[in-house]
UniProtKB/TrEMBL annotation:
Residues 6-219 form the NAD-dependent epimerase/dehydratase domain. It comes from the Bacteria. Pfam families: Epimerase. InterPro entries: Epimerase_deHydtase, Lipid_A_modif_metabolic_enz, NAD(P)-bd_dom_sf. This is NAD-dependent epimerase/dehydratase family protein.
Amino acid sequence: MSLNRVLVMGGTEFVGKSLVKGLISKGYIVDFLTRGNKKVNFRGFHKHIICDRKNQNTLKGTLENYIYDYIFDVSAYTREDVHFLLQSINKSKLKRYVFISSAAVYSPSNEYLYENSERGNNPHWGIYGEDKKKAEDYLFEKHQKDELPIVIFRPSYIYGKGNNLYRESYFFHRLMSEQPLPVPNTDQSKVQFIHINDIVDITIQSITNDKTIGEAFNLTHPRQLNWMELGSIIQNIISKGRVMSINREVIDLLNVKDRDFFPFRDVPLLLNTAKLKEDLLLPRIDIEEGLKLSYEWFLKQDLKPRFHEFEQLERVTRYCLER
């Protein structure tokens, strides 16, 4: 194990950082590449490579003398990001290229999404999902033409220790301060989540499993939730605050969008996990356990509320309180 060298693209934020630390804990020799803008506050890695991956000449000059057994690409958002990297590295010993994509590649649907479901334009996710799809298409093409040993993961909503997106921390801040928490209750959305520890465990396991080569996998805990259920779970953990149901009539009356007052889009996102279960393993951390872990981490941080990111939050709250 100690002879296997890994490159993680990313490594100072949430998913990338968690993968670097997870790989280190399993005995891999780990380099990670970032632009160097964030402080590194952990040890055990081999080298932190500082480089802008979007500059192909610089990237090639930086990586041309490195040879890796495995690459985990967390920071690629476009086809060009992937292309530049593959043109810059020596692939002679590469056993697996793990691409962290997104469920945003799928076309809108109220049904379960399978790995072979239609991918394409989705107005809910915009250019982000379109670019991830193009990156996937390029990797599938490289696998078919050049036998590049890829595996692609499409996670649902990721949460857990170190989440830099203002999602579960928003719930914690709002309820701890005992301010009302307005939550969409429109019967439109069933969604799924996956804890960061499960992301790390499953993606690392994939690199030594030949069934994953050339495949894409939905990556989520199979449990479904609506937003009111999520709010209730968090409220039970904190034992404070008030979750306020906001129905479609109120949303339409105030002429607001869900993201104007809430950290998630009020759209369904359900991934079928049969393939994940058959070829790898299902996530083991249920939402209650995972959010308790998140809350324990949150209490140790000095995170400031960012309510200002939601332009209509106070207006929606005030209206509902005055009704």
